[in-house]
Design brief:
- By secondary structure, this protein is mostly beta strands.
- The chain has one domain: Sandwich (Immunoglobulin-like).
- Helix content is 0%, strand content 37%.
- A hairpin with a 2-residue loop joins strand 7 and strand 8.
- It is globular.
């Protein structure tokens, strides 16, 4: 089954309790978190808050709090480390779970904008995402993703 490529609804609203508590008790500099709502089974792209075409970026790391990624490290409970891009090298920790069998990983990094792309997004992806640039310990703003509905892959072998 081919999924539809749509944009998720994005709104800036009051974050849920604890959404701004990241990385070992620290607070993010922007108290308003971006909220994305997506339908399971669709393709979405999550922008890296603070990244612009003029931003000098030598390192980007995406983390997620509350999402499911069994193969991703979660040092100190700070969030699952999904991927890290540094000096033209991409390190993926979610590779074993989503793509280690030779299939394309569901989560991809947009190298032009450092955005996180989900192809497709599932309910396991719901959580608070952190885009950390240039060794910063806190993101410009967390992004809270809520995935609604269930996604069933129809091309599985029976």
């Amino acid at each position: 089954m081919q999924t539809n490529d749509i944009d998720a609804a994005v709104a800036v609203a009051e974050p849920p309790p604890g959404a701004n508590d990241v990385l070992g008790g620290g607070k993010v500099s922007n108290p308003s978190a971006a909220h994305m709502i997506a339908r399971a089974g669709t393709n979405i792209t999550m922008a890296c808050p603070g990244a612009t075409p003029d931003t000098y970026i030598y390192l980007v790391e995406w983390k997620c709090q509350g999402c499911s990624c069994r193969s991703c490290p979660n040092p100190g409970g700070e969030g699952h480390r999904l991927m890290r891009y540094n000096q033209d090298r991409l390190t993926r920790w979610d590779e074993q779970e989503h793509g280690g069998d030779g299939t394309a990983a569901r989560r991809q990094l947009d190298f032009d904008r450092y955005a996180l792309r989900f192809e497709p997004v599932t309910s396991d992806d719901s959580g608070t995402y952190l885009c950390l640039m240039n060794n910063r310990q806190t993101p410009d703003s967390p992004v809270v993703l809520t995935v609604q509905g269930m996604y069933v892959e129809t091309n599985q072998k029976i």
